[in-house]
Amino acid sequence: MGTKNIDRRKTVFGVVTSNKMFKTITVKSEKRVKHPKYGKFVRRVTTYKAHDEENKVSIGDKVEITETRPLSKTKRWRLVRIVK
């Protein structure tokens, strides 16, 4: 009946651009999309605010974040692990 959606949560890899907030990091994720008319690949950047419980991430770290319930007005992601 009630299946858990834990496995269906989105995960995103990105680079930390800010860690000035308390237990919050800003992660920049970049993807390449093809322009519909001209066919050139264009870079699109999305920024996410993610929850970092232990404040252990520094600027420039590559991290993996995943979707979670709303933690604040703009925070809907949480830190899974530090990749590099």
UniProtKB/TrEMBL annotation:
One GO MF term on file is: rRNA binding
GO cellular-component terms in the record? cytosolic small ribosomal subunit
InterPro entries in UniProt: NA-bd_OB-fold, Ribosomal_uS17, Ribosomal_uS17_bact/chlr, Ribosomal_uS17_CS
A Pfam family the protein falls into: Ribosomal_S17
Alphabetized SUPFAM superfamilies for the sequence: Nucleic acid-binding proteins (SSF50249)
Tell me which Gene Ontology terms the entry assigns under biological process: translation
Instruction: State the UniProt keywords alphabetically.
Output: Ribonucleoprotein, Ribosomal protein, RNA-binding, rRNA-binding
PANTHER family per UniProt: 40S RIBOSOMAL PROTEIN S11 FAMILY MEMBER, SMALL RIBOSOMAL SUBUNIT PROTEIN US17M
NCBIfam families per record: PRK05610.1, uS17_bact
Question: Which family is this sequence assigned to?
Answer: Belongs to the universal ribosomal protein uS17 family.
Q: What is this protein called?
A: 30S ribosomal protein S17
